[in-house]
Amino acid sequence: MILAHAIDTASVDGLDGLTIGRLADAAGHSKSGVATLFGSKEQLQLATVAAAREVFVERVIAPARASSDRGLERVCALISAWLAYSDERVFRGGCFFAAASVELDAKPGPVRDAVVAATQSWEDYLTLSIQRAIDAGELPLLDDAAQLTFEVVSFLEAANTRSLLHASIEPYARAATALRSRLLALGGDPGRVSGIVAVAAA
Amino acid sequence: MILAHAIDTASVDGLDGLTIGRLADAAGHSKSGVATLFGSKEQLQLATVAAAREVFVERVIAPARASSDRGLERVCALISAWLAYSDERVFRGGCFFAAASVELDAKPGPVRDAVVAATQSWEDYLTLSIQRAIDAGELPLLDDAAQLTFEVVSFLEAANTRSLLHASIEPYARAATALRSRLLALGGDPGRVSGIVAVAAA
DNA sequence: CCTACCGATCGGTAGG
DNA sequence: CCTACCGATCGGTAGG
Question: What average pLDDT does range A59-74 have in this prediction?
């Protein structure tokens, strides 16, 4: 798929750095072929966001859902899956949405709206998973699920950026340490929480 | 200064989004005037990073140094100054370095090196300030200053991006809550820690 | 500091 | 799906 290369390019050069001409060259098509396929650059960007969303679900949400039960176990699985998704460089420039969020945060328009909707969807699912852990009594010292979501995604995205910036895996260890520490402070079961590791065992 | 507009533009469109022609128009000069002034686009980018660094020191480091003693008080002052610097939109696209770090994290070269050096310098100062707080016994449950630095900058940058992305000040309150909670868990004095607020009182 | 210009590349379209 | 082309804009330079 031509969009796989588009996500990869956008994760490095940004969604604005996408050009129809280079995408066409890489795919072995003519420039006008790609241009008419998508209609406009903005529609190409929107298609890229939609494709990245599918990959994210496939690489983070789906594995965590498959390997864990609801509650704190699911929360830890989502965190570990996200760290692996970033660490494995599913996209050359790391997490596509981390890059797109910062690129577009001050640029209103349909593309930003699509990025916001995608990240909102992921964070809503994380908040729901945390709320289920609260409801099950697995995080007895937490009362605001959305607050923990903010803290979790802060660590994940910071680890992603800093790993790329310094060409190091140390930031993933920093994030894992911060998250284990936070979940323990909220009363999380030490055996569960210790399942958060910087590099996937698998 | 022509560079003030360059920082502002780069905080929104990225350092790669800077163009000599538009910068010249905005300053009322000819394109070639700006081109010969900086020599090349890369040197313009490097000059922009250097100018942004000065503004950051002036807006975050200097006020915190002037208003606080070394130790935990200084750490809290740095955090509050950073939140105010982001919240006040010193640059239209929020923190210049948050934007530049993510834009360049997968693009090696002299400009990325300059951004890395600037952020490293800021984080080194934060780590030093935290270490002084540890040495003074003000964070009795913390042993790794660099780990707390990672956690602090994670919250600050996430608040910056999310505030822009959602046009909301709520993320600053999330970051302040997270930071107070973390410093309290590390044994920080409640009176000191409560000085971290989302919106500057001044 | 300017005007004027260079080749390259951009998004998009005409025409088939 | 292609070739060929449009006007606009890019970084950079010649020449003064």
Answer: 98
The answer to whether residue B198 scores a pLDDT higher than 90 is no
Angle at B79 between CA B78 and CA B83, to 5 degrees: 115
Q: Return the structure tokens found at A142.
A: 């937490």
What pLDDT, on the 0 to 100 scale, is given for residue B202? 38
SS3 content of chain B, % helix, strand, coil (to 5): 75, 0, 25
From chain A, pick out residues whose CB is under 8 angstroms from the CB of B94: 105-106
CB-based burial, B140-158: b 16+ in 10 Å, e otherwise: eebeebebbbbbbbbbbbb
Place of tokens 């340490």: A177
Which residues of chain B does A14 touch, with a Cβ-Cβ cutoff of 8 Å? 14, 16, 103
CA distance B134 to A110: 47
What is the band of B200 on the pLDDT scale with cuts at 50, 70, 90?
Answer: low
Q: What is the pLDDT of residues A5-52, one digit of tens each?
A: 999 999 999 999 999 999 999 999 999 999 999 999 999 999 999 999
A107·B166 Cβ contact <8 A = no
CA A61 to chain CA centroid, nearest Å: 10
Per domain, the residue ranges of chain A are: 48-201
Has domain A48-201 been given CATH number 3.40.630.90?
no
User: How distant is the Cα of B195 from the closest Cα of chain A, in angstroms?
Assistant: 19
Q: What is the pTM (predicted TM-score) of this model? A: 0.96
User: Average pLDDT of B168-175?
Assistant: 98
User: Considering only residues 147 to 166 of chain A, which have any Cβ-Cβ distance to chain B shorter than 8 Å?
Assistant: 147, 150-151, 153-155, 157-159, 161-162, 164-166
Output residues with Cβ under 7 Å from nucleic strand D. Answer: A 24, 28-33, 36-37; B 18-22, 31-32, 35-36, 40-42
Q: Which residues of A touch B165 (CB under 8 A)?
A: 101, 104-105, 112, 116, 119
